[in-house]
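Please, structure for the following, as tokens.
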Amino acid sequence: MQDSWIDKFKGLARLPADIREELEAGSQIVTVPAGTQIFAPGQTADNLWLLLDGTVKVQQKSETGREIFLYRVHAGESCVLTTASMLAFEDYSAEGTAETAVTAVAIPRKTFDDLIAKSHVFREFVFTAYSRRITDLFALIDDIVFQRMDVRLASRLIELADDQGVVHATHAVLGTELGTAREVISRTLSEFQRRGLVEQSRGEVHLTDKAGLARLVKAAGAHV
């Protein structure tokens, strides 16, 4: 019991022994390398994914080919789009890609449906995660509509930076992250560099004044 993957998810740790056994027996742990497309528009949602390790990026592409970042799924989280598709018996409307090597638990539809019907703890776990992510998506809409681009970019740079304060992303990728054109990102980064907040190199942005970027975000009333 102590070594079960179930205990890595706070909402599932309260499952009674019989439900835990059913969940473990009816699911499997899978691993995929970085860059793997986990789901795509038009595909059927056959499994609920719970991430144990790694990151999955979910984004949507318009008919004109423009891409917009929706959210990331991190270790200890589930994918709200998968949950919505499974609950509504609808196909995916966006794509999910493993940004890193990913280890996850795949819960097939039969196990998912059975536990949703019989376990209030499992049901609460699913809908709590769903509700939290929907709130995040509303915050994303609010940012896109009302927040200045420099503030959004500063916040995203802080989020994406590694331990050395380096963001490994091109201007085009950052444009996709924020739902804007590459040229807008380039202009904003040039201004950040002029102010001593960042330094740029090919495919990388170095945060030379992370605290300054954080102050910019805080002054606008946004979240870092």
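Residues 120-146 form the longest helix (27 residues). The first strand starts at residue 28 and ends at 32.
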